[in-house]
Task: structure prediction
Amino acid sequence: MKKHYLLISLFSCLALPAWALPDDDSNQTLTYAGETVSGSTEIVAGHGQQNANGNTVIITGSTIQDNNSPLHNAQVVGGWAVYNSANDNTITISNSTVNRNIVAGQSTFGLQANNNEVSITGSQVNKDAPLEAVTTLTGYQAEHRYDEQDGDVYVLSSMATDRVQAAGDLAPEASLYTIYGGTISNGEASGNKIIITDSQNGIGNNLVSAYSLYLAGSHLEGNSIQVSNSAVSGLIVGATSYAANWETSITDPLTNNNNSVSVSSSQVNDVIGAFGGLTTNGNSILLTGSTADNLYGVSFGQNIFYAGGQPQTIENTADNNSVRLYNASTVTGNIYGAQSHSVQARGNLVEIADGSSAQGNVYGTHISNARVQVNDTTVSWNTVQTAAENNTLTITGATAGNSTAEIAGAKNLSGWANSNRVTLTAATATAATLAGGWAAHERQTLTAQGQQDLAIGYQADTNTLSATESQINANVYGGLVSQQDDINPNGVTDTTLSTAWANLVHLDSSTLTGNAYGGAALGDYTSANYNRLWLTDSQVNGSVYGGLAEGTNSTAGWNQVIINNSSVTGDVYAASAAQGGNNTVTLAGKSDISGTVYGGEGGNNQLTLLNFQSAQELNVSGFDRPYIISGADTSVTFAQDVAQADVYVQGTNDVNGHIMIRTPDENSSFLLHSVDSGVYTYALTPEQQADGWTAWLLSGGFSSQRAETYVQTAMAALALANAGDGLLSEALNNAVQSGQETGTFLQSSYENATHETGSGIRLHATTVLAGLYTQTADWLGGLYARYAYGDYNTYPVHSDSYASSWAGGLFGAWNGTENLRLLADARVGWQTTSYGGSYQTGASFDYESVFTSLQTAAQYAFIPSLWADARLRWTHIQGKDLTDNLGEEIYLSGSDSLLGALGVNFQPEFLAFGYFAPQIKAELLHEFNGQGLAEVENHRLDGVSLRGTTGRATLAINYNNEAKGLLANLSGFVEGGQMEGWGVKAQGALRF
Result:
């Protein structure tokens, strides 16, 4: 290749006898101002046998002529070391004409060429230098082995590969002249720069910021090229090693990382971020307001690892490289985030944005057929596995491709393409194939000589193609496996399975002319499973597939197509394959399907219509599960009778005879699941129409009776907040009667009551009260904690729900006279309520609220065994805005209770025996408020209330052991009126 010739001549022709050079020739300066330098004059600022550092060449307003002597290859060199370092050298050229190779820092056999810089402003360099297509690439193959003494060893040998045949891409062009930042034979070349500014008259040289002649021990890191407001016709390479023809064993192979090329407001030819290396990671190209031919984030020759004729895993990597186009840039050729014949390529990025245009092929990563030189006479293709993973192509406000182009997040001809992504936003893309990830290959066969080219199993899995507000003219694929099947000479067919698994195509507000495939595997022995195609507000002028697997030995299962407010002029396939199953199609919104909707081969395929509306007849085939039809806005005409469909309707008011479904006759079967429709209820009835078709009419709407069950939740919570009413008064009465200065008490009750609320609540409540007190002759005070739990159900619309609350409070009492006692308490609590389990509404929700409660009470003793008590308790529960599981909006206002009680207690002493004494009580309770106010789906409901009067009768047995300071009570009660039911109470007090 011409570039090899130039580099070799550069290294050889500048050599001087070692005895004529100083060991160190640093910090020298050469200046040319307004001069003409002949072609026979070398320009070398510093030339040392060991070191040449910090040298400077300054050329201003001058002409540096081309080499005109057959004995000299005159160059412009800043610092040139033979054996060691050439660092920090600078060449500055302004307003001049230079017709030579230019090297800022060169170490011929040395180890370092770092931080050298070539800066050219307003100048012309070999403007008319001829260009030659680079049709071959020199790469290497390697055997990786472990040596006990040296560790990892790579046995390298170089080889030339025909670029066009192997890669199938356009060949970059290179000049006969080059500008170098830093060059080494092997070692480190880092931080070198080439800066070209305001040079529109033309730079005809190649630009290479860092160069290594050999592969052993070379590290090219952080080199850069910046071109602005200029024209460059030569090849631009951030950093490269071309690998001379040799074979050796090394332990430290070439790395080529984090190099960059930036081009702004310029015209350039071909650009490569980095070329070659065992690792070529983190390199970048940035094109802003510029024009270029071909762009390669990184590019490789033939880098194969093998052992004994059998390939090993590829070890060299091309990761996290990037190519970006901004500000109306144009690329007339191809774009590659990474391009190679064999490499593990991950995380590479191509971004085209801001009115830019890419007119050829565009790949986040492209890996060509891999070749291994097995021996002197045998060449084997596709015998190694390579990976193209997590690569990305984004096109935003830009255009890409042409009618024959390929556009892909990754295309791999030698392995798998997984988890790659293409994202289009407000873009226009035209291509023969547009894919998130693409594994393209030809299955290998046995040769006539019996040498088997190993088939390796190909995958295009978990790739994504998404487009928003874009125009696409192409066949699009989330993941694509394409292949050609061959039969070996022995007649044995290769049955290695290729897969397109879990890929996605999502078009949103976009137009596609072509077919769309969530995942596709072409050829025999393929599978396409778990792929998804999703259209939203889009139009497809073609057919769409969730999953496609070709051939007689193919399967496609668990694929999904979702079409929402979109149109498809062709057919819709959940899956297309010889066998499979469990595929689904969902049609939603105002969507039109001109062709037939297919579920696929196999069983358990599902069709779902979700608020689907179409004026066209819907043709369906290959769905064996009952259809699911959901949403009262659905309006569908089936071209065939429907064997069975489940219909779900929720959330529509006042539907009266809406034609939801049309079928050819009455033989169809539709099961309406109104029980799962929240606060709405519907009916679906068939009606014969004049044209002979059968219309299925939907009627119904909001149901106040269903909605009341939600309001009763608030009433149940209010009833629970008052549950166990009277427990505290009884505890304080016992405490006063005991006469003890301090003590504790524990009260509990269980009640099973039905509340007539206008509808009805059945509440099963358990309440526990624990506290302590202290008292004097006239006063008593203390604190207490309360826990209550209740499960309840409602009627006539049934639900099973529960609530629980925690509260804490303070209390006090005053013994006004010997017969009169006044009591008061206050508490604050936290309550959780869960509504659910309704088999009629299908609704559920949870909410939490704070409640407060105040009580005042009085007790009057007629005689010690006969006394009366009166209580009045106010309770307030906080309101709540919430949304249930069906999406219904519910507002529960704050609820207030004002519960009064008047009772008479009688403890007949003549029936006492030992520590035990019976007690009876008659009590009248009245709820003065207890109103429930709510809004459900913007409907006001206020007919549910706890208001009313209840009578209660209680029979108790008291235990009083003054000697041990222990008092207990066990009672049972029945009640009727607004509350109907029964309950039990248990009380205990310990005095000390």
Notes: The CA atoms of residues 77 and 468 lie 52 Å apart. DSSP finds four helices and 96 strands in the chain. The helical segments are 2-13, 163-167, 704-722, 727-738.
